[in-house]
Task: structure prediction
Amino acid sequence: MRIARARPAEIVSCDSLQVYRGLDVGSAKPGVQDRAAVPHHLIDVVDPDQDFSAADYGRMGRLAIADVHARGRVPIVAGGTGLYLRALLHGLFEGPARDEPLRRRLSGMAERHGDARLHRILARVDPESAARLEVRDRVRVVRALEVYRATGRPIGEHHRSGSGPLPGFESRVLVLDPGRERLRTAVERRTDAMLAGGLVEETRRLLERYPGARPLDAIGYRQAAAVVRGTRTVDQARRDIVVETMRYAKRQRTWFRHQETATWFADADQAFEAAQRWLDGA
Result:
């Protein structure tokens, strides 16, 4: 927002939850005032029960930044979903077709022995993907195993090769990494704000309308759903959200260190100044 206010610019969200309508509090979507002050894109584009992939984001994101540029403005891509950013900047390989018999066997294994069994298998053949994916993210773990079996190569190698770089633009990736203690303080503050802002009530409404929707298994919504079902207290949910968010941040660090050529900043002011200098051609 600081960069966008300093020059004619618009923001393209790079967040895998903000694409869904109704997931407002738990995804920390920009507020009404921010979105009125600076145009935002790739927010509220699909319903929670609709499929939306990184490849979908890549296609829509490229259209969005081309549209922003065509109107003489600077597109600023903001968010921490690494695979979405890779899809935007480098494209994604199409990948092998779905192997339904293999998927059934793997899903059956997870049902019998737990998701951790699948995750351990993935860690043996594709440790990079295992480090990036949550144990309970069965859909993506199964896909990574499916790709490895079909190609003999980890899915990350395919993603790095991409399907074609973003044409017509020069980009720079800036990563904010304030350090563990400052990050934890910010995560705790954000978690408290989400709970005070109605996360549990929002989750209850979403569960009623979209039972079983995959986005509701994301950090924040998963814990709030447990409160709705009466299996966790709000205090327990708060603790779990903070712990899981910190683990996710660790996976983000790993991703951006291995996937993108980025400049890292512990201080947001320094990142802002660096962005300004780069945009000015310095």
